[in-house]
């Protein structure tokens, strides 16, 4: 794994580094599937525990879950999934597969946990998942938090080019 490098204050994220709409949509599809798999695994574990320990009330509740309870569970899993993955690595499973990551839109730095929490909460806005299909390809969760999803190879190439120009400017003869 590459070492974490300090982003120079003069560095700027440029439009050519941003993930295009198709890649963002693929991220979304992969992450939705991952969230459903997590929910399924949690349900199987809960059912197993309920059966093993003869927790009749839990079994009855699981058979009669209301839509509101179901949505509440899904929202919690979504918050945890995006919160944990993006806070620790700036990437989710979707971003890992597509070679993208989330950064601060202006500086390119890794977002703080607070920013990732806001970003994750924004995902709960109805139809937010499709907001990146609009004009500039940024979703509401990007715009409201000042973040961007970049293609890692382009981002790192831009950072390397920036560093090269910085070195060139700092040479004294």
From TrEMBL:
The keyword Transport does not apply. It comes from the Bacteria. Residues 19-133 form the RDD domain. GO terms for cellular component: plasma membrane. It is a multi-pass membrane protein. Keywords: Cell membrane, Membrane, Transmembrane, Transmembrane helix. The chain crosses the membrane at residues 25-53, 65-85. It is found in: Cell membrane. This is RDD domain-containing protein. It comes from Flavobacterium cyanobacteriorum.
